[in-house]
Amino acid sequence: xxxxxxxxxxxxxxxxxxxxxxxxxxxxxxxxxxxxxxxxxxxxxxxxxxxxxxxxxxxxxxxxxxxxxxxxxxxxxxxxxxxxxxxxxxxxxxxxxxxxxxxxxxxxxxxxxxxxxxxxxxxxxxxxxxxxxxxxxxxxxxxxxxxxxxxxxxxxxxxxxxxxxxxxxxxxxx
Length: 174
Known about the structure:
This protein is an alpha/beta fold. About 20% of the residues lie in helices and about 25% in strands. The strands form 3 sheets. Strands 1-3-4-8-9 form a 5-stranded parallel beta sheet, with helices on one face. Strands 2-7 form a two-stranded antiparallel sheet. About 20% of the residues are buried.
């Protein structure tokens, strides 16, 4: 279950400044929703939370409307990262490539640039100084980048992990 643990847990940590929710998803389940639509109660983050990292961001998640205005650093990427290893077999000199996540039975999908733009639009205006996102490119990448430039004037660091694949494969392979 990817939903957040007991809401009271965060309320008992009023000094929490950094929260990283790194979820690894087996290939067989859909992208997680941290705070589903229709959840009972309200989601309240610690008022001084300055850094938030969430993996596999889902545009249908209600968490985006609940982010506190204290957040300065936001990271929305896939995890675990796919490791693409290319090396040469000893003795033969033949090239050998390995996708480690495939062997571990995990998957990590990028949201599309349209979905990432939708997520950022759902967030209340945040005074971010750092943003790190991973997305799959399509025809709307320019809209995403324009939106970031327009709504994040205080941004000092921008990290883009972009995937483009002619076959439309959205597998995370950083």
